[in-house]
Amino acid sequence: MSWITRWKEYTSLQKAKAIGKLAAFMAGGMAACLLGVLLLAKLLGPPPLLVPQTTVIHARDGEEIGEINNSGEKRFWVPLNKMSPALIQATIAIEDKNFYDHHGFDLKRIAAALLADVRAGAKVQGASTISQQFARNLFLTHDKTWFRKAMEAFYTIRLEMNYSKNDILEGYLNTIYYGHGTYGIQSASAFYFGKDSSSLSVPEASMLAGIPKGPGYYSPLYHEERAKQRQSIILRAMEKNHFLTRKEAREAAAAPLTIVSEKDEQKPKIAPYFQAEVMKTLKSELKLDPKLVELGGLHIYTTLDVSMQKAAEKEVEEQIDKDSSIQTALVSMDPRNGDVKALIGGRNFTESPFDRAVQAKRAPGSSFKPFLYYTALKNGYTPSTTIKSEPTSFAMGDGQKDYEPKNYNDLYAYDFITLSEALALSDNIYAVKTNLFLGPKKLVKAARQFGIKSPLSSVPSLALGTKGVSVMEMTNAYNLFANGGKRVEPVFIKKITDSKGNVIYEHQYKKKQVLDKRAAFVMTDLMKGMFDEKLNDYTKVTGSSIDQYLTRPAAGKSGSTPTDSWMVGFTPQLTTGVWIGYDQGKEINRINDGSYSKKIWVHYMENALKNEPAAAFKKPKGVVSVMVNPKNGKLATENCPVKRRTYYIEGTEPTEYCHEHAGDRPFNHNGFDHKRKGWFQKVFPWWH
Question: Which of the 8 DSSP states describes residue 645?
Answer without folding.
Answer: E
